[in-house]
Amino acid sequence: MSVPTLTLAEVQAAAGRLAGQVVETPCLHSRTLSALCGCEVYLKFENHQFTASFKERGALNKMAQLTADERARGVLAVSAGNHAQGVAYHAERMGLPAVIVMPRFAPAVKVENTRRFGAEVVLHGDTFDEARLHGLALADARGLTMVHPYDDPAVAAGQGTIALEMLAAAPTLQALVVPVGGGGLIAGIATAARALQPALEVWGVQAERFPAVWNALHGAERECAQATVADGIAVKSPGVFTVPLIRQQVRDVLLVGEDDIERAILLLLEIEKTVVEGAGAVGLAALLQHRDRFAGRRVGVVLSGGNIEPLLLAEIIHRGMVKSGRLVRLRFDVRDVPGALAEVAAALGRLGANIDEVQHQRAFTSLSLERAEIEVVVQTRGDAHVQQMLESMRADGYRVERVG
To answer: What is the CATH number of domain 325-402?
Structure first.
């Protein structure tokens, strides 16, 4: 069986088709993240695309090469998120009829965003695989051209234009770190980057819960989970076209955990003031989790997208505050007398803590009748501040413990 091919010339041709049609996103050095990661970090902000994802590039490159007859009949894509919006947006711009098949579980906001671009949205099946099978049948019945999210040379070539832009902006990069789902993004980037700079290393990153490409490279059989915060790369079956290219061009694929991904999302929000989805944050998560592999090097990280549900982002922020000690739960054992709660609140205020929640418990406690239990959630400056508070309050006679 012959190995699939993709060339630098194809990626450069894709760049010509995309010129002026997609955003040439910034590639910027981050001084603060460089200090945290122990290497020089350059961020490629693909979350700045109009649909907030790199997926536009591959979709447009594919559709730009359709014949007049194919354009008249239209295109079909199967996607629950970023690819759907990229296809729908550029199909509308080009005047192409577009059908997007999405699983019934697809988030309502993504369904509505896709419809907003004028695409016909078909909701079918409870899983992505069921939607995919229905999409294939529908494309065949209607004579529509399938725009695959990753397993297509034209799509991979479009994604590879990211590498051209990164190396033009930061020509001394020594490594690129790229999210991996089905493999189209990294196949395109690795092909272009290593053709231009053969010594440059390309690393892929997958969520530990969806290690399909990692399995393929390492001869392993780790099972995929039901879900991950990096839903944009939650792919169980990588591309037939992409995996051989990844074997040829990519140094290795690294795995990152859910906590690491959440931390990376929060760091990018706090430090770079940019919103990324889970898939877009795995590159930074890899730099933090696998520091020894990149120490002292100049590393480009692709922030592949920024489409994250607001409620999920809020939960990640909340959990991050808890993990860093900036939001803690304290439990006080106090005398059950008037003014006891006010005294606790005043003491916390003097120590610089801001009370978020209070629960005053008499009945549901094992304490003796003359005592009461007070639980407070307080905002602090971090773990060191919490420890100082506990020591000071205990020195003043308070019975207090940290419970969360």
So the answer is: 3.30.70.260
Looking at per-residue pLDDT, the higher value among 341 and 14 belongs to 14
Residue type for 170, please?
A
- Cα–Cα dist 180/302, whole Å: 11
The answer to whether the beta carbons of residues 370 and 336 sit under 8 Å apart is yes
Torsion of CA 45, 48, 52, 54, to 10 degrees: -50
What's 402's DSSP letter?
Answer: E
- Indicate the pairing of strand 371-379 with strand 354-361: antiparallel
Sign of the CA dihedral running 343, 384, 316, 265: positive
Once rounded to an integer, what is the mean pLDDT over residues 342-352?
Answer: 94
Burial degree of 58 (CB within 10 A; 0-12, 13-18, 19+) = buried
* Rounded-to-integer distance, Cα 39 and Cα 279, Å: 21
> Of the given ranges (14-28, 55-69, 360-374), which has the lowest mean pLDDT?
360-374
107, amino acid identity: P
Q: Give the H/E segment covering residue 310.
A: helix 310-323
323 is catalytic: no
User: Can you name the CATH fold of 8-54+153-319?
Assistant: Rossmann fold (3.40.50)
Summarize the chain as % helix, strand, coil (round to 5). Answer: 45, 20, 35
Which of helix, strand or coil describes residue 227? coil
Q: Domain extents for the chain?
A: 8-54+153-319, 75-143, 325-402
Strands of 27-30's sheet, edge to edge?
Answer: 27-30, 40-45, 298-303, 175-179, 201-207, 252-256
Q: Which listed residue (44, 55, 62, 110) is catalytic? A: 55
CB 263 within 8 A of CB 213: no
Q: Which are the contacts of 19, defined by CB distance < 8 A and separation ≥ 6?
A: none
Q: In what order do the strands lie in the sheet with 371-379?
A: 354-361, 371-379, 327-335, 399-402
Would strands 40-45 and 298-303 be described as parallel, antiparallel, or unpaired? parallel
> 304 catalytic, yes or no?
yes
Is the model's pTM score more than 0.85? Answer: yes
